[in-house]
Amino acid sequence: FAEALYNRGNTLMELNRFEEALASYDEALAIRPDHVMARNNRGSALNALKRFGEALAGYDSALALRPDFAEALFNRGNTLMELNRFEDALANYDRALAIQPDHVMARNNRGRVLNALKRFDEALAGYDSALAIQPDLFEALFNRGSTLMELNRFDDALASYDRALAIRPDHVLARNNRASALNALKRFDEALADYNSALAVRPDFVEALINRGS
Known about the structure:
Layout: H1 2-14, H2 18-31, H3 36-48, H4 52-65, H5 70-82, H6 86-99, H7 104-116, H8 120-133, H9 138-150, H10 154-167, H11 172-184, H12 188-201, H13 206-213
Helix pairs in contact: 1-2, 1-3, 2-3, 3-4, 3-5, 4-5, 5-6, 5-7, 6-7, 7-8, 7-9, 8-9, 9-10, 9-11, 10-11, 11-12, 12-13
């Protein structure tokens, strides 16, 4: 029963049991080699296991069956980003968005790639386009703050982190980055309070410890 094996793989992915998920997808594909979702999700399991070359091959096998499969293109972009192949990742996000323009995570991750390429204004435009579709997208608000920090737009970065933390108050990296924005604005007592808040959630958060000491 290929569909049950496929769904079992999906549940194992949710449990972060990636080796078992991979085995379940392999069983499904042995029965139904044309199951494009199983091929795509098999790639995601391999990506989670940091077997990036095999993950790309998995997405490619899905795309060979369905060239307009936006999710496989998106996932392929994510793996290419892990490999620091930013231009290739950008091309994959662009292809995904040509097929599915409202894919908010493709818009967000496209912004991340542009940030890595130091194309900061374009990165901001990418995040803003994602937020125009989904205003409460935490990832876009958080990443937008990071790009604004690169541009030394500390007040704007602070506002973006505030919006992100209103959605996920316990996100330690957003709390740490908010503190860095406050520190850059010479609002030192508030920055210390934020570093302490991050460390209250995660006492072993080395970056917050270093930043608080600085």
